[in-house]
Amino acid sequence: MADRRRLLSEWIQAVGMRSLRKTVLLAIVASVVLVVALLHSWPTRAYTTVDVWQRPGPAVERHLEERFPEPDHRSANIPYRVKESIAGLLARNGCVCEGESGGMNLPFAQLLFPRVSAHPMHTAFEASELEEMKKRRAKEYQGFQMRSQTPADMLIVAEANNPLQYPTQGMEVRPLKTILIPGLAVQDHPKELYTVNFTSTLGTLNVAAEVEGVKVKGDGEMHMTLTSSLLSNLNRQLQFVTYTNTLFHPSTADTVQFETEGHQAMFTIKVRHGVTPKLYNTGPKGEYNISALVTIATKTFMRYDKLQGLIDSVRKYYSTVTIVIADDSENPKTVSGPYIEHYIMPFGKGWFAGRNLAVSQVTTKYVLWVDDDFIFTANTKLEKLVDVLERTTLDLVGGAVREATGYTATYRQTISIEPGEEEGDCLHMRRGFHHIIQGFPNCVVTDGVINFFLARTDKIQQVGFDPRLARVAHLEFFIDGLGSLHVGSCDDVIVNHATKIKLPWVSQSESDKTYAKFRYPPASSDATHTKNGLLYFKNRFQCLTHN
Amino acid sequence: MADRRRLLSEWIQAVGMRSLRKTVLLAIVASVVLVVALLHSWPTRAYTTVDVWQRPGPAVERHLEERFPEPDHRSANIPYRVKESIAGLLARNGCVCEGESGGMNLPFAQLLFPRVSAHPMHTAFEASELEEMKKRRAKEYQGFQMRSQTPADMLIVAEANNPLQYPTQGMEVRPLKTILIPGLAVQDHPKELYTVNFTSTLGTLNVAAEVEGVKVKGDGEMHMTLTSSLLSNLNRQLQFVTYTNTLFHPSTADTVQFETEGHQAMFTIKVRHGVTPKLYNTGPKGEYNISALVTIATKTFMRYDKLQGLIDSVRKYYSTVTIVIADDSENPKTVSGPYIEHYIMPFGKGWFAGRNLAVSQVTTKYVLWVDDDFIFTANTKLEKLVDVLERTTLDLVGGAVREATGYTATYRQTISIEPGEEEGDCLHMRRGFHHIIQGFPNCVVTDGVINFFLARTDKIQQVGFDPRLARVAHLEFFIDGLGSLHVGSCDDVIVNHATKIKLPWVSQSESDKTYAKFRYPPASSDATHTKNGLLYFKNRFQCLTHN
């Protein structure tokens, strides 16, 4: 028994050792293989790096319109005569800060013939800090330029007699997606071999189908060549060329070079997400439901009597419209009632901060801005303003404000910016408007209006009221809105202004005095937060002219 | 005496009558002439009308990338083989709301191999109101399209072998201003007479100089012709062609046709104000001055203990940074201290309303968003986040939030939108990122991050937090920011999260209970103000897929 056990154990040992070793070996090998297979099949992704550093890019050729092009050798001797009336309209090399000089100095001259005055902005700063401010502004501006310019702004000229046909505008691809490039073709004279090639930088080129008789090289890369001896086959292949964006950026453009022997072309593919809409529910069909469409927004400071006057007058005509009130008074009182939203701010935080706050809370399609001392009357028909915005592409439409004297103002202003160089741009404001709106004879298109207007909520929130403007400010909002807001003004929707006429025998109330102290204060300590300081630093203006 | 008087008076009468008549006549004529002269010289301006009505414009040819171009008669017989790997990447005709089906149903499957699930958005609405919502959304979307599309989006293809040379990209004119059109030329074969003409729609064409030997017709109008027998003279004249915008619009484009016999070309001139910068004062040079550069913003609701915990922890490291607090608690308590700005809102106004309010008050270059239950530690180095935004073109950079368990999250999400048809677009969200940022090995580029991030104030104010989102919401901000915000995420700047772990033996405090009631509420009454309802109506999505 012991023998057999011994022999068995010896045998097991002998066989077992080898098997054990083998098994262990096999197990080890199997595990390794499994792990390798697992690692291999594990969804790995090689993350490439992306360079998003702020560096200077290629200079954009933008100054062509400022001077006449140099003649080349062929045209140097061709005589021409300058047409002053047109040449004078072209932009100068940098703007100059000057108003209109001279003019009559009669009593009502400024009233009848308002002269243009020019105001340099750098005066907001002490001489000692101006140099530093200039440097800082230039540095911030450089960063801004690098973030806002794209290859889609670059000047491209199509060469003449190019056998290449290609798209010059309208191509867009969403980030990291693929599109077919439309409109590509070659119309060359008969040749033995036709070759075209493509070069891109933010993505790769490929073909969605392979056409017989065409050799494709570099598909899936940033440089692709197509060759064929048959022109019609090459052209059929060109209808299947694709572009895939591979270097992520939410809003940029790739410039693609397209070449054939002796000729080249350049075109741009915009790389960006589509514009996602921000739509508002307008309430049930039928007549304009003002409560569903409009929120009234205002800011108040130390004059609850005026504010209550506004609210009471609104409620006479619109009992359920939401009124949003931003309040930075010193000892805030409760303002309550149905559809009233009262927001308390730190004392004296400021005018535009309050405007920005009020507007940030609106959930309806439109917002009506009013000052806290307005009074609604039977002439304050909000339906008319809603009608204008519902039926036109305008973003904001102003009304008219009627003083106690009967004088009614629309305060229409046109605004334009003349580019300058390192000193900054020149801002030009003039009373007036651009055109009358077809179909709305009481309404015009302009750039700035009085502080009584209806606006699309998404647009006004996008532009915003800069909270750095603590006290007196108005047109700064419209300056910030230039290019974004399409502005109109109608003179047949009128709101009354609670009187501001100071009668000499009526003493100012305490709250009036405090109000006046804040409303018309001495200069702030932070120069860049004053109106001119902000125009200088934030918007990069050197000069403001107005009449 | 009486005689002399009588004779005198008779004489006066005789002479006087004629003179009187003459004088009166002269006086009348003189007045008329004066009035006419005055009226004539009075600065009158013929205001033209402008049509800004919302009407359907030319359909934008955008669907080329969705299907293969039809072969014309020449290429119909050329065989080709579809390359599935590429053809499959092209956009389909409308997106389909589907997730990933099948997959393992093991316990940790969703954790290890997260499956993509698809959620239709229309379910936010009762069946009875869905049809009405669809119609209303379509109408609002149509208005949005009319306001946002411009001729600069239109597909233009340059024809081959065109003797015309012309600019295809990069031309801009400020509204109502004039530019020289660069790059124009003709390179035609020898002819007796060379003629080119231009046609524009939003402005007029002219020449800034007149070249000998060239006849100009229609200068100052919307159709201008240049004729010459000498090609080099015509080309010299083409260097002086100008465009003047006359129909005001703050942001549009004019498509100009350029033709010669047998050939034509089209190019676009953008009509828009330049982009006015919004720069911020960064404080004195040297190291990053966090108080001058950053404002901390947060929203609080019914948990002043957590809020005080946040404030105390911030002050350990940044004693003078401004903290802006939006508070919609039921019985607001005073929160005060140096550099603290406390804003009181109507009770329960909402999460995104509060975020929008806080951010609307920031006056520094950057804003740091924190939740009111975060705790700053020695790892919460804001200088690192500022460094990223100062040195790259990113607009927002997220950090990491560390739970009590030690688990640290960056919550990186990539977001893309697949265009759909009338049903709406499809929104795709996936965990992950796009690239690692060169030079910042702990940072990546992505589309959405956790609620701890530093952002450029002007960009975050421009995107905004939609106040219609009252309760649970997070990625909606990043969805609204798609295309505007360039987003990054760094995992080496960490803030702690005050514990949310509900220990079973610790009973919830009253304030915790109220907080929970509002934080995780039942569905709101206005369906378009729920998360899905808003995605459906406001952003026009039909579907959301995510993993």
Protein model, in words:
Two copies of one chain form a homodimer. Chain A has 13 helices and 30 strands. With 547 residues, chain A is an alpha+beta fold. In chain A, strands 17, 18, 19, 20, 21, 22, 23, 26, 27, 28 and 29 form an eleven-stranded mixed β-sheet that branches. The longest helix of chain A is centred in the first third of the chain and has 40 residues, at 2-41. Residues 56-67 of chain A have low confidence and may be disordered. At the A-B interface, β1, β2, α4, β4 and β5 of A face β1, β2, α4, β4 and β5 of B. β5 (164-169) of chain A pairs antiparallel with β4 of chain B.
Question: What is the share of helical residues of chain A?
Answer: 25-40%
Beta-sheet strand percentage of chain A?
A: 25-35%
- Count of distinct strands of chain A: 30
Residue stretches of chain A low in confidence (pLDDT < 50, at least 5 long) are 56-67
Biggest interface pair, residues each? Answer: A-B, 164 and 164 residues
Arithmetic mean of pLDDT of chain A: 87
